[in-house]
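$ ./design --mode recover --in tokens.txt
reading tokens...
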């Protein structure tokens, strides 16, 4: 588009520098991305490869709480494997800025990113908005759920598949809001439903509508061909947050890192996602209203919540007391869960 010629020109200039850089460093451009299924960044990987051929890129997905520990450990040892990190643990980026280990960069699209999503000095940016939504099976439920309490009805007994809330901060955040509205009694009633807990968020979301599972309180936005349907709760709070991304002073492929961050911030990339955008000038697709029109979500609230680690620790203790310890292998190492991720059930 004519309006965004400056962004396109910047991308082409950075692309030329990144190609030249890789010929010099001979090092693959590496991104560590937060997630719990190995294929979660496949679309972004292929988009980037197709848009910028010749850039040797790899995106490694792992739980944000594992990636960030590796970052701290490697920084302590004076090196860093990853060139860019994109994580859910947004408090880490604020810590890294204080530690003065981040490399500031404001691409042309940075000015359009919503206030509060990024660091004003450019040390990190809100790359894209994630959301968790409740899901129900298209067949077998018999009514259309509208609230979290609807999952406490008898039809869902023994048929809920959930992420253990004390294993994922974003899921725990949703349940914190549920407790604030309905009290701890909600958790006690939920336990009577005998839910099946599966580590990670990808597998529970994929299982709704399969294997007899009828619902998931904290699931994914769904696509038309899925056997389940997600919904935005009418009155209950739901989570949205801007996944943050940054490069470091120790980043070796700095031209490629700038290219990647500029691409994420660009109108070209943001306007094609189909969901809410971190930019103020992108129109939402698929019938969604602009994020600010929803009074029962606040992307900035999760950022503030993540800073209160004592409260999070107390919540984890509460869930451990009621539901027991988190069990099972990492969702990125369990072969049975990987079959779910890749839709081979």
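writing sequence...
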């Amino acid at each position: 588009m004519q309006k965004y010629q400056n962004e396109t020109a910047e991308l082409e200039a950075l692309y030329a520098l990144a190609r030249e850089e890789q010929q010099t460093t001979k090092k693959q451009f590496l991104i560590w991305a937060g997630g719990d299924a190995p294929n979660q960044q496949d679309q972004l990987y292929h988009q980037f490869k197709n848009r910028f051929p010749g850039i040797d890129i790899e995106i490694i997905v792992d739980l944000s709480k594992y990636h960030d520990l590796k970052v701290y450990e490697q920084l302590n040892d004076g090196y860093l494997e990853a060139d860019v990190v994109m994580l859910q643990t947004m408090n880490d980026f604020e810590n890294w800025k204080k530690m003065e280990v981040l490399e500031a960069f404001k691409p042309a699209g940075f000015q359009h990113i919503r206030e509060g999503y990024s660091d004003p000095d450019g040390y990190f940016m809100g790359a894209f908005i994630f959301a968790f939504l409740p899901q129900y099976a298209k067949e077998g439920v018999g009514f259309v759920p509208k609230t979290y309490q609807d999952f406490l009805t008898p039809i869902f007994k023994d048929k809920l598949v959930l992420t253990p809330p004390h294993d994922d901060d974003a899921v725990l955040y949703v349940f914190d809001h549920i407790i604030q509205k309905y009290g701890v009694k909600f958790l006690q009633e939920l336990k009577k439903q005998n839910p099946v807990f599966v580590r990670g968020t990808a597998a529970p979301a994929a299982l709704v509508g399969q294997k007899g599972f009828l619902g998931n309180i904290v699931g994914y936005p769904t696509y038309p061909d899925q056997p389940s349907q997600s919904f935005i709760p009418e009155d209950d709070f739901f989570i949205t947050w801007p996944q943050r991304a940054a490069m470091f002073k120790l980043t070796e492929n700095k031209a490629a890192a700038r290219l990647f961050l500029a691409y994420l911030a660009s109108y070209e990339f943001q306007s094609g996602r189909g969901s809410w955008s971190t930019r103020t000038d992108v129109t939402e697709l698929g019938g969604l209203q602009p994020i600010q029109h929803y009074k029962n979500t606040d992307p900035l609230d999760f950022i503030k919540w993540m800073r209160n680690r004592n409260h999070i620790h107390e919540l984890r203790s509460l869930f451990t007391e009621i539901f027991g310890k988190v069990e099972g292998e990492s969702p990125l190492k369990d072969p049975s869960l990987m079959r779910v991720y890749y839709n081979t059930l």
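exit 0
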